[in-house]
Design goal:
four-stranded antiparallel beta sheet; alpha+beta; Ribosomal Protein S5, domain 2
């Protein structure tokens, strides 16, 4: 095998509880799901140990090479498993700075793709992905899961089909800045994830949706008024639940069906870009 193509799927944090700090990082408890918004990643095997990355698409020019997580993940893979290098082509569709996990998704797709190219088993790929940042290990497989720690503790859950309408403010929110503001504000900690998971496992999606929420939301709103505006606009569309993903700035609402999402988007009169998405389980 000389080349592989993979979709790097975005994620939504349906719940996000901040549970304290450990080792200098915030410990989280989150119910997360991958959605059918994705970057396209193409990996071509080289005959040397070099890694080269070419980016195109939405916001690609705003990613400095030295901090390109896909590049760093590939270089770490080569060092760890002593393999040849790769040429990486990434066509971006996931907005940057929206809390949708685009950077982690790209890294996960690179690691999983290189695992296929060089016959490295997925357990070893997952361990490497966990060392590359929050959510990266989860996004090597995706689906629906409860995430703990920095996101490296993944408990897979039975997949549930869900339909979302997203509002996408133009201004992204840097994750470090949002966590720093969270600490400065002394925001209260939630404990919604456990109950939301229980409702999902009982088959009560509507009850789970009422528990959607994000402890970082007040901090994100203090950094960008657009986040709160988008949230209120989605609430006015009468969804099953509404929240912000990650550290923002994207806000999402859950509707009972795709038709409900379409109707909500048609009735929306706000200024933000809209996107309809559904939950996906890439391994299926």
């Amino acid at each position: 095998m000389q080349q592989v193509c993979r979709n790097a799927y975005a994620k939504l944090n349906l719940t996000l509880d901040v549970c304290g700090k450990a080792g200098g990082y915030h410990a989280l408890d989150s119910l997360a799901v991958t959605i059918d918004l994705s970057d396209q990643v193409v990996l071509t095997r080289r005959t040397d140990a070099r890694v080269c990355v070419k980016m195109s698409g939405a916001g690609a020019g705003n990613i400095p090479l030295k901090s390109n997580n896909a590049l760093l993940a590939a270089e770490k893979f080569v060092r760890t498993f002593v393999t040849d290098g790769v040429d990486i082509s990434i066509r971006k569709a996931i907005p940057i700075g929206a809390g949708l996990g685009g950077s982690s998704a790209d890294s996960a797709a690179v690691i999983a793709g290189m695992g296929s190219l060089f016959c490295v088993n997925m357990d070893d790929c997952k361990s490497l992905a966990d060392s590359c940042g929050s959510d990266t290990g989860f996004l090597t497989s995706g689906g629906l899961a409860r995430l703990g720690g920095r996101g490296e503790q993944v408990k897979k859950l039975p997949f549930v089909q869900m339909h979302f309408l997203l509002l996408l403010p133009e201004v992204g929110i840097p994750t470090p800045a949002c966590f720093a503001r969270y600490d400065d504000m002394g925001c209260p900690r939630g404990a919604r994830t456990e109950e939301a998971v229980r409702h999902l496992q009982a088959g009560d999606l509507a009850a789970a949706a009422r528990l959607f929420g994000n402890d970082l939301f007040p901090a994100a709103c203090s950094l960008s008024a657009e986040v709160g505006e988008a949230y209120r606009e989605l609430e006015a569309l009468s969804p099953l639940g509404v929240s912000m993903t990650g550290s923002g700035s994207a806000v999402f609402a859950l509707f009972p069906s795709e038709e409900g999402c379409v109707q909500a988007r048609e009735s929306y009169r706000g200024r933000f870009r809209t996107l309809i998405a559904r939950s996906v389980c890439p391994q299926e």
